[in-house]
Amino acid sequence: MEESTTLNFTALEDQDQKDIRIFGCIGFAMEMMNLKPSFARKLNQGLSPIHIAVKRGHKEMVLRFLEIDKDLARVKGKKGKIPLQFLSKAGNPDGLVDRFLEVCPESIRNVTTTNRTALHIAAERNRLDVS
């Protein structure tokens, strides 16, 4: 059974209010990772905090997660997807793909449960900004 953590909820910060509260949430999330590093890998509905931050467009939080622990780039969520594969599906508006590949170049080889890499997903979605 998956267990929600405070770090998961911090990454879920409401999109409409992110400009107002995101910096406080980032500080809180970083402190939680410092006190309890295992929280960064816990899944909530198949997603880790970095998956959620990527999905919600919290670029600064994603960058801080990677700064503290580059191995978070390879945490597998539902269907075996890593955060880079979420970006490949959604596109690369914030240039995060470059950062993921910089901190963890081998993540490009990770495959989902359906045997798809980030490049497969980008090509299927015609996301030329990713590939």
From TrEMBL:
Q: Which superkingdom heads the taxonomic lineage of this protein's source?
A: Eukaryota
Instruction: Return the InterPro entries for the record.
Output: Ankyrin_rpt, Ankyrin_rpt-contain_sf
Q: Does the keyword 4Fe-4S apply?
A: no
The ranges of the ANK repeats are 45-66
* Phosphoprotein among keywords: no
Q: Which Gene3D superfamilies match?
A: Ankyrin repeat-containing domain
Q: Which Pfam families match?
A: Ank_2
What are the entry keywords?
Answer: ANK repeat
Q: What is this protein called?
A: Ankyrin repeat-containing protein BDA1-like
The organism is Gossypium hirsutum
